[in-house]
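Practice problem: predict the structure.
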Amino acid sequence: MSRKIALVFLLSLFFTVSLFAQYDRQEPEMKIPGFNYVPYFAATISGEEDPSIPQGILSNEFFLESLRLTKLAQDTFEFGDYDASAGFAEEAIRYAQLSDEYVAVQLIDEAKRLLDWADVNNIAGRYPNEYEESKNYYETAVAAYSYEEWTEASDAAIKSIEILAAFEAESNRASQLPRQYTVRSWTVERDCLWNIAGYPWVYGEPRRWRDLYEANKSKMPDQNNPNLIEPGMILDIPSIRGEIRQGMWDPNRVYVTP
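Answer:
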């Protein structure tokens, strides 16, 4: 059930049970149970279908409580306790609105984080149109939030995030150095451990050849001869400075070296 449909259902249930409650005052009074707080970023709730917002944000403590209260409103309505059902429905609506506000806050904060990242990485200079569009969406989100228009604020923040998140993802991918390298020929590429260690996306220092040798000694045709490597051998490139390494070296990629 979508969030908007659920809210419409709760509103209709609230007004319906309020009408019934006027004619049924003999039922025992039921108090709303105390709110048992659930940690932020709780487990995913199945059936929530909006893929543009991370489940950890959607499934916040307010949303989880609105689900609990909705269930109580339904159960007490079927039981015939219309006063209690009206109370639960009213509280469920309140928590659903608090959830919408919470989601808007989280998304606006993420949009601001990405804009700060963009400023540090000169995205405005390299991609001025996209940066300006993202910034405008962010400002729209902030303005909508100030008027307590949670849905509009979330929608604008999501658009701001989507623009800059793509640049951040690409930047992160480019900053990953290769973890493996396929040896090429000595005749053409002059591949040896000394030269391979000197590649900027390996270590940029030929003298670090021993790091490659020790990590790949078991693969060598002659483990006692570091000069003997063969084309097609896959060398592991160990991280020596905490650099992130992943995947095979790709000659078509541009690697961002430290």
